[in-house]
Known about the structure:
Blueprint: H1 3-26, H2 34-52, H3 59-81, H4 87-113, H5 126-129, H6 135-152, H7 154-176, H8 183-192, H9 204-221, H10 224-254, H11 257-269, H12 271-277, H13 283-302, H14 308-324, H15 326-342, H16 347-371, H17 384-395, H18 402-409, H19 417-420, H20 427-435, H21 438-443, H22 445-458, H23 460-471, H24 505-516, H25 530-546, H26 556-572, H27 582-586, H28 588-602
Helix pairs in contact: 1-2, 1-4, 2-4, 3-4, 7-10, 7-11, 7-12, 8-9, 9-10, 10-11, 10-13, 10-28, 13-14, 14-15, 14-16, 15-16, 15-26, 17-23, 22-23, 25-26, 25-28
Amino acid sequence: MNVLEKKELKNTFIAFLCTWGLQLILGITVRNPLTLIFFGLFICIGRKVRENDRKGPVIPVLLVSFLLSAALVFFVGRRAVERFDSGLFKIAGVLIMLSGISLAIFRVMQFLFKTGDLLRYAESNDKNSVEKEGPLANTARDEGKMASFLWEHEGAIFAIGAIICFLCWLPYFLYEFPGIMTADSIVQYEQVIGVNPLSNHHPVAHTLIISLFYNLGMSVTGEPNSAISFYTLAQMIFLAICCGRVVLEVKRIVDKKRWVMLSLAFFALVPFNAVFAVTIWKDVPFAGIAMLLGCRICEMAMRDKAKTMDFVMFAFLAVLISVFRSNGWYAFLLCVPFFVFLFRQDILKAAGAVIFAIVVSLIIKGPVMNAAGIVQPDFTESLSLPLQQVARVLVSDEALDEKDIRLIDAVIDRTYIHELYAPDFADNIKELVRAGYPDVIENNKGEYFGLWLRLGTKFPMHYIRAWFDLEGGYVYPDIPYEVGNIDGVMPNDYGLVMMPRIGGKAVVKGKEILIKLGGFVPLYGMLWCAGIYTWLIVLLLVLMLRDRQAFHGRLLVFAIFQAALVFTLLIAAPVVDFRYEYAVVMLMPLSAAICAMIVKRRI
């Protein structure tokens, strides 16, 4: 690391502490967009101070900064730490405020009054850059050769990345054995053991994979808990392989070890990835498939001419995306015209790939599932947002035309609308419709579409507010919801229980602290909210549209695919849930690397 990089690292660390101190003393959450503004501001101030090489007394100014900080913490900061339950977190909060606010005041005084820098690194000279000969130098040289060998062999990067992820998640698997199972998991398990018939409400493709590994486990162990762990372990391995693939693609995009290490750290060390890796949800394998598809698109875009096998793999992954989640199917369809246009150099192969994927998906979703007697999700399931918007108008007691009232009463009993309506959760209203006459809507789609349009025209603010309350967390970061704070197996009648292979107070407390850090550390806390990933995709789209030469423009499909996934959530998600956007989350290192690549080239 050269002198300039050391100074930039120091400046970044100081900006982070300043941001953390301000975040705590102002009482804002770590997800508040102001934290990003503070961080960027102090980064810029630090660079300006360094560029101007300002001299002056440091110690007196630093002392004044500390005294002012201490006064602020004493009079204001005590209230800021009262929200923490843990005494350890309260002490840490006070210390962080003292150091962060002191540095913030000091940085501002540096900028305004031309005081000296807090720390100065000596410039490197030729003598210091020459390593002394000896055993340590030889060891360093040998390690450098090994690192260089691994860097040049992509298979090693992929394998090491996957193995590190798996090993970092393994303690969670052993603690959560046989895996985390929520209500959705139990519903799918009931289909696996034949209590209920197969249904595509939760993707039947995922249910069948669970069944495959469960039956394999039963044949080996004969015990349900151990059997279900076979699927959990398989899911972990698959997700770890997908993470290794993304790390490799990051290396190909930017060819910088720092980006590769950061990507690997995100996958292996951020706790919610470990929690999701051992949770039996459709969203986890779906995210893995999306990661593979995103990497395939990038690889095709980077070639001067995509190979036939690229289009074959694209078609295969597109089918998996389409059958593993309904919004994956719609996102794929939205991408089709862009994919065909941007890969028009190979128009026959591109068109053939998408036609194959669409036809196969339709056959699976239609004739195959119908022949197998697989129940499809009802029409009401797709109406989360429209139902919520109409319900908002009713809850607001707005005067409606007699015709509109008749249409509504033909479907639901309005007696319970005030009691059941939850602004951030659509399932209550959907169940109210299901308890009434949902077939009336399905058989008269045009009439009820007109009702929805009329009410939206009359009461647009109610519609906008209902949309934001239901879906706002996908665009605005500072909306509270839990991420990764799930444990064990939901109570059930099938003998499935949590059977930890490791445990003790230290393990439980360690897991709790790791999860809580997502709500305590600014900037890092942004990784725990879906909205920030949406804005990363917006940034990626803007940069690509401004730099149309990026891989001949074909890389735009990568951004459009993710934007389409987010768009489907913005118009149809029944609640703000981090796992619904998990596919975009897991492509974040690759999206960020492409942004960095475009910015660097423009500079």
